[in-house]
Amino acid sequence: MSGQSVWKRIGRAVGDFLAPRHCPFCGAAPDGGELLCARCAAALPFTEGRAVRTGPFGRCAAPLWYEGSVRNAILAFKFKGKMGGLDCFGQMMARCAAEEFGGEFDAVTWVPVSPKRLRKRRFDQSRLLAASLCVDWHTAPVSTLRKIVDNPPQSGITEAAARRANVLGAYEPVDRAVIAGKRWLLVDDIVTSGATLSECVRVLREAGAADVVCLTLARAAGNGEK
Length: 226
Description:
Strand content: 15-25%
Number of helices: 9
Order of helices and strands: HHEEEHHEHHEHEHEHE
Distance between the termini: 40 Å
């Protein structure tokens, strides 16, 4: 174990002592230093055998369905800055990526927000998720994309064609030399129609990525998926 990882674990332990963790999905205090309470560990809508979805973006894995307490927890994190569940989210995503895509990627990146939204929100939720899932892998996510269009939020658009049009041309590569030849794990918070992931995967592939697989914390269920 690296020295950096040791100090991160010590920091977590001290933080748990001074301010005990709470389950990000129900607010209860988990037992034994766990990140998730026993009740939610048994009751959350895990995707389990249907973790991987295929689409224009290729393959995308997610540990959770986007509903109920999962939806509430993600919205609290994304729009209210509730960071207490970040370690739990990252651990779930790291486990899902290892189970579904083990050995299939060389580096981790994320779907970025626009500069305007970053100034307003003061954080990029997908970058934080990517950094959290990388902690126990002794690595760090790599910036590969920048958002160059401050388009309307995808959540306000319902039709699939309109969602695709809304993100077309919204991203560009940061540095093609960094992207080229590598297999990437692309991280985002939620996948619904898959339009945003598809556009980001297209840009990465055109910049020379050898392969791209996607990972989100949760995904919305399509027709017949549940």
